[in-house]
Design brief:
9 helices
């Protein structure tokens, strides 16, 4: 049960934990930032069942804001690091056929205003990392990349928090609700990968 985690969402530091996890997972995609966001949303949603709905709405909005802001900041840091990476990073990308192809596709997509690729990549496993680093390494303009990064981060954060909230409303604040919500998040990731592979070069 998740009742023992309820105290985690009572204090403001849960937002810092969520933000730190989301910020760092652009560099370490294995970090379970989505798991933390959904778990926090699920336990927070338990307050609605006990009649504290007035506290749940701002808490959910704060979760979305902290996760989305951290997502954009992480993207920006990765983008700037790759921008300044120099020849060593260029050689590392050149050695990988996948990264080279991804960078070329990203460049074409951004130049044509195809920011849907950036949004899809935010849901795909490690897609956020590839897109952020490739955009910086290819010296794409920040004004072409960051607005799409912001929309991607907001979409991902809102979707993740909504999964946790509605999972708790329908199934209760249990591990089952969290598991179903995570399955839906991973399903969206698999769908994003499928759509990215089907996009024409």
């Amino acid at each position: 049960m998740l009742e023992s985690l309820g105290s985690l969402t009572a204090g403001p530091w849960i937002y810092a934990m969520v933000a730190l996890s989301v910020l760092l997972d652009v560099f370490l995609p294995v970090l379970p930032s989505g798991v933390l966001v959904i778990t926090a949303a699920t336990t927070t949603a338990a307050g609605a069942a006990t009649g504290h709905i007035m506290h749940v709405v701002p808490d959910m909005l704060a979760l979305i804001l902290s996760a989305a802001t951290a997502s954009v900041l992480g993207d920006l840091v990765a983008y700037r690091l790759a921008w300044r990476g120099g020849e060593r990073l260029d050689r590392a990308i050149a050695r990988s056929r996948r990264l080279t192809a991804a960078m070329e596709r990203l460049g074409v997509a951004l130049s044509r205003g195809g920011g849907a690729l950036v949004i899809l990549a935010r849901f795909a496993p490690a897609g956020r990392s590839v897109v952020s680093f490739c955009a910086g390494a290819a010296h794409r303009r920040a004004r072409d990349f960051l607005p799409w990064s912001a929309l991607a981060g907001l979409s991902w954060a809102a979707y993740s928090v909504a999964l946790g909230y509605f999972g708790a409303q329908w199934l209760g604040a249990t591990w089952l609700a969290t598991g179903v919500s995570l399955a839906a998040l991973f399903g969206a990731g698999a769908g994003a990968v499928y759509l990215m592979r089907r996009r024409p070069a």
